[in-house]
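Quick question, first post here. What does this chain look like in 3D?
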Amino acid sequence: MSPAAHHRARRVLVLGGGLSGTLAAAALAPHCDSVVIVERYTLPDAPVPRRGLPQARHAHMLWSGGADAIESLLPGTTALWTGAGARRISLPNGMVSLSPGGWYRRCWPEVQYLVSAGRDLIDWGIRTRLLEDPKVTVVPGTETLRLLGTATRITGAAVRRPDGTTEDLEADLVVDATGRGSRATRWLAALGVAEVPETVIDAGVTYASRRYRAPRVPEDWPVINVQADSRLPVPGKAATILPIEGSQWLVSVSGTRGGEPGGDEERFAEFTEQLRSPLIAQYLARAEPLGPVTVTRTTANRRRHFEKVRMPDGFLAIGDAATSLNPVYGHGMSVAAQSARALRDLAAQRDITAPGFARRAQRAIGRPAAAAWMLGADQDILFPGAEGRRPTLADRLAGRYVHRLIRTACSDLTVVRALTDVMTLQRGAGALARPGVLLAAARGPRLPALEGPALTPGEERVRDAPGRDTAYGSEAVPRH
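> Answer (accepted):
Ran it through. Tokens below.
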């Protein structure tokens, strides 16, 4: 009998068809016979809004660490994005940013990059490339009810079809990618699995976003970002202008507990006047608002420590279902992508049905999330009114070192490179402790702090224009 006759089809069931779910499917498809994605809503075949993704209305930065991981999983995705109007923005020179340590200079060579686009476009590009694989099937309009199996092994999930009927879907591996609202810990508890511990750090961040028609601007328009400073004894307020497809700006503002923005359209721009710099308010005065303000308050950092429990074989959680992050740091998509890549790499080494595979995979996909947690949640606990564990002496000392790095980065390429590599998730936090970086931090800034943002003549011209100028769409203003 041939080896093929002994082959047993391996089936993966992915719960959730969002970004994390589609990337998990891309990771596992080469290592199984079929992947079924169960999605509660209908997924559009165009880059348009969909139900179940309210955060799509807010600014999303896809850092190079995430974009590279996606490209390795689904080659050609970047070309789909840029062909549809997404922007590849060079870092650090393509970002005008006021950090807690001052304005960053823009005279450096490219260190990393980010992809700037609406979330609907990013998801569409990933979904389009994934569904070219005949192994992958999406079951839309279907709700997951519970997991099947025992505390030793998960064997599938019970689902409710659009017509109200229920069905048991069997699988060798079930991946929970249902996001922040995941019910997996309850489903597992019902099967006798021990309680999964959680860590929550909540700075009370409220997010508000609005789209604008951009004024006539240079083609290589930068991301503009004013950050909050956790050292100040006041609520942190921040804002970002993200240039996206369709000659639009996606503008998100955020405030920690006690300084939250509201959904009032008249007060949206006023909030930007309360930032540490008036730059974003000045630019919004030149742009035309498009549509209402969208507000989100579900922004707490939450880690479900599946790795600390004796988990059953055949189940793992990925993306926000495992670790959800404060979106102000822009790491959610990149963490999901790097987690999926880690899952793919492990599946290339071990059979996905092998005992212990899921537990090893859970640890592997947790490493990128842990790195992003350190960058975001460990800063959030320093804001006034933050809820969760209180900052320790080690936290405060680390915060002081990071601030010194940020201040030094305003005039030192060595530190700029290290911080950018870590922020984009291309390197771990250990890069901040390399000898050259430690020496630069000890030496401190090499140049005086900039008195204002490092703008090009074209960017200054837009800022200083007497009123709105949106009649020219994406026509470029020559750079000098």
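The CA atoms of residues 218 and 478 lie 6 Å apart.
The longest helix spans residues 357-380.
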